[in-house]
Design brief:
single chain; 158 residues; mainly alpha; elongated
Amino acid sequence: MFDKKAKPGPARQRQLDRYAQLVDKLSPKSALGQGLVRAFITGGSVCTLGQVFIELGQRYLDMTVTTSVTFASMMIVFITALLTGVGVFDLIAKYGGAGAFVPISGFANAMVSPAMEFRREGLVLGLGAKLFTIAGPVLVWGISISVVVGVIYAIMPW
């Protein structure tokens, strides 16, 4: 029906050229280098904060390495949830892009954000139900895969 290799006529070519110029004019220009630097700084800051909590736990709270890592994870989740609740994490994420969503802080933000949207529906139906809309599937798949890996490891120990 249509020959894709056929060259468009002069009128169609002018239309395509005008469209390409309009797209170039209206498309936002990407500052890739600036975005990479911001993501690096933001993600590095989150990770540095986590390392600070690990060091504080080991030196001043007399925690083992495992306990201090758990403490650091809990603190990052708590701080991210708190900042999401007061609306500051959105500003950090807008500035730092993907760097703000280091897995643990991104997970905390993904749990709290839906809950914040539905808090007017009450504690059980709004806050409680929406808190696990993201976390539920992650927990189900994480636990399921860990069981499968455990069974495989039990059958074929390495």
